[in-house]
Amino acid sequence: MSALLITGARPLGGDAVDVLVRDGVVAEIGSGLDAPSDVERLAADGLTLLPGFVDLHTHLREPGREDAETIATGSAAAAAGGFTAVLAMANTSPVTDTAEAAERVLDLGRAAGLVDVQPVGAVTKALAGEELAELALMHRSRARVSVFSDDGRCVHDARVMRRALEYVRAFGGVVSQHSQDPTLAGSAACCHEGELSGRLGLPGWPAVAESSIIARDAQLARHTGSRVHVAHVSTAEGVEVVRWAKSAGIHLTAEVTPHHLLLTQDRLSGYDPTFKVNPPLRPREDVEVLRAALADGTIDAVATDHAPHARHDKEHAFVDAAFGMLGLETAFAVVHDTMVRSGALDLAGLADRMSLAPARIAGLSDHGRAIEVGAPANLVLVDTDGGHTVDAAASKSLSRNNPWHGMSFTGAVHTTILRGRVTASPEESA
Amino acid sequence: MPRHLLSMSDLDAAAIRTILDTATQMHEVQHREVKKIPTLRGRTIINLFFEDSTRTRSSFEIAGKWMSADTINITGKGSATSKGESLRDTVRTIDAMGVDAFVIRHGASGACHQVAGWVDAHVINAGDGTHEHPTQALLDAYTMERRLGSLEGRHVAIVGDLTHSRVLRSNLISLRRLGAAVTLVAPPTLMPSGITSWAHRDGFTVGHDLDAVLGGEGARPVDALMMLRVQKERMSGGYFPTAREYTVGYGLTRDRLARLTDLNPEIVICHPGPMNRGLEISADAADAAQSLVLDQVSAGVAVRMSVLYHLLAGADGGADAAARVPRSAWAGSAA
């Protein structure tokens, strides 16, 4: 029997309590809890206790690009970021489009043992956007895949998207869509379309390429009675459509990345590919709308779109460099500073957007639970006064495409606990 | 002078004036029997052209050679990604040989900015994607000034495929800094993104009706007309329906030329080349007395000599070059 006594922690920032975890489950909550002397103790005075974070959107690169990230190193980065579960996108090599591929990701995640790694299945074979992948076999596999995405590519053919939505309804699956109409924003599009893209001479990525796909998918979800999830919504226009779809009773959920909540398109003016990401960084006005939408629940969840890349894949001319940036380790700090310190969300709201809501969307019943007796002990302790400056060299990720390097934040993840076991702690990272 | 010339915005009005004044002196070399001055003797200039170019590359090469620099042309077609070598590795490899300057043409916007962060040598942008082509804007200003005098208060209309034009972006900066008024004319599909707010911020005007701009009621008289190349491939991208329709709306046809020269016989016509005769400019216009097309090419050498001089041998450039510290390991261990 394993046990852990957390003392003096403040659940959701409330009054300090002690929490006794036994066999991976919250066994007791109260003041001055007693426990045998051989029980491991974790002094958490001044720290805030939250449900472990859940990331709907990561790229762990294994199999195929183990030079950029492995499931083990990505898991370590996730644990350091306070996550207890992450969804691993399917755009690996080979693509996660079969039950066997999904089980392999699941098993590698279990072997690493730092977070629950839940594979996302491809919607279409080889992400080609043409034929459905073996969606039900992936769902029936040990990996129990229920989130499907061709992320990196949009399922742009309306007929294919319609069939995918219809098909996964049989087992309660959801399609997470990378909303980018490829005829309006092609593969070269890398800068928000507007005055800046005009001045920089970079291929523009207009907001309408996102919002038009969200609108189409919302209509398809209504038509099929299925559930659709909007990955990384990035524009005010996209938010407007999400808000309309929800008001119309359509089963649509949406996520936003930490980088779209803080970084703006101005970062591109020096052509540094560290800031090249898809969808691109947007103007300040969009950032404000995204924050407000996350606060009022129009956007359900924060998801990192953690996208590690080997250095040499970023050292090309801007339009040729790889898309994506790191996000797992800094997500809490960014959301805390942009949403909680600004007063837009309280800590319970942060817990909802980073844990409860994403766990609900992904159907992960062991995660995103209220901190109560009987719940699996998937927890994170955060220090809301943990001022720090991000050092890219200290990252657990194998990659260094870190746009947060040198930025200072007021909140920090302190300790992460997966089923009662500490998976990341300040001692370990020191 | 800045260390690199990556964008026209690297040069303030005084720096532009200095470069144009020196270009006047350099232009005289062109007419000598012995076209050689020792200014850059011992310097090595790499013309690194990732994109095809005839006039810009030969212009830079001649400029370097007349100034006694060792100029070497390296052409690399296709993207570096396809060859597996990163742009950073490519330029650092050449930089490690101890060259003094890179003149770079690249199909990707911003490539020269990135290279400047990776190498010790000076970097001169010879055209990066659809971003900028600063020496073209300098030679355009030089050529127009030779015919018109100061550009202060003059009105320049720029017509053509503006969204894909690096020549436009550099000219917008230099012409405004030299005090000219600028009007852009193109169908909306060939205007750069965000042109309305851009025009408002930088103080130029935008129109879609060429005849209204050139001679409409109450229109400000145009002193210089800059016709930019329109690539026929753009039709497949849906930017305009047919060449015929484009020419009717935006081409400098024989009829338009006649109307223009009636209004203002002193008007000058520029085109950075290569020209699509019959599409954006008629043969009559290209070869008219008002056309500066060949003067532009001629001025290109003088202006590039001036740029090379100021960056490499001018007070700042010379000091920089002398102070350069070899970076390779053996140089360090020998010290």
What is the topology?
The complex is a heterodimer of chains A (430) and B (335).
Chain A: E1 3-11, E2 17-22, E3 25-30, E4 40-43, E5 48-51, E6 53-58, H1 71-80, E7 83-88, H2 99-112, E8 116-119, H3 135-140, E9 147-148, H4 158-168, E10 174-177, E11 191-192, H5 195-200, E12 204-205, H6 207-224, E13 228-230, H7 236-247, E14 252-256, H8 258-262, H9 284-296, E15 301-302, H10 311-314, H11 331-340, H12 347-362, E16 379-383, E17 388-389, E18 408-409, E19 412-418, E20 421-424, H13 426-429
Parallel strand pairs in A: 1-4, 1-5, 6-7, 7-8, 9-10, 10-13, 11-12, 13-14, 14-15
Antiparallel strand pairs in A: 1-2, 2-3, 5-16, 16-19, 17-18, 19-20
Chain B: H1 13-29, E1 44-49, H2 55-66, E2 70-75, H3 80-83, H4 87-95, E3 101-106, H5 111-116, E4 122-128, H6 134-148, E5 155-159, H7 166-177, E6 181-185, H8 195-202, E7 205-207, H9 210-215, E8 224-227, H10 243-250, H11 254-263, E9 268-270, H12 283-286, H13 293-313, H14 315-323, H15 329-334
Parallel strand pairs in B: 1-2, 1-3, 3-4, 5-6, 5-8, 6-7, 8-9
Helix pairs in contact in B: 1-6, 1-13, 2-13, 6-7, 6-13, 13-14
Give a structural overview:
The complex is a heterodimer of chains A (430) and B (335). Chain A has 430 residues and is an alpha/beta fold. Chain A has 2 domains: 100 residues, Urease, subunit C, domain 1; 311 residues, TIM Barrel, CATH 3.20.20.140. Chain A contains 13 helices and 20 strands. In chain A, helix 4 crosses helix 6 and helix 6 packs parallel to helix 7. Chain A is globular and about 65 Å long. With 335 residues, chain B is an alpha/beta fold. In chain B, the strands form 2 sheets. A 5-stranded parallel β-sheet of chain B has the order 7-6-5-8-9. In chain B, helix 13 packs across helix 14. In chain B, 44% of the residues lie in helices and 13% in strands. Chain A: It holds the Pfam family DHOase. Chain A: GO terms for molecular function: allantoinase activity; dihydroorotase activity; zinc ion binding. Chain A: Catalyzes the reversible cyclization of carbamoyl aspartate to dihydroorotate. Chain A: One of its GO terms (cellular component) is cytoplasm.
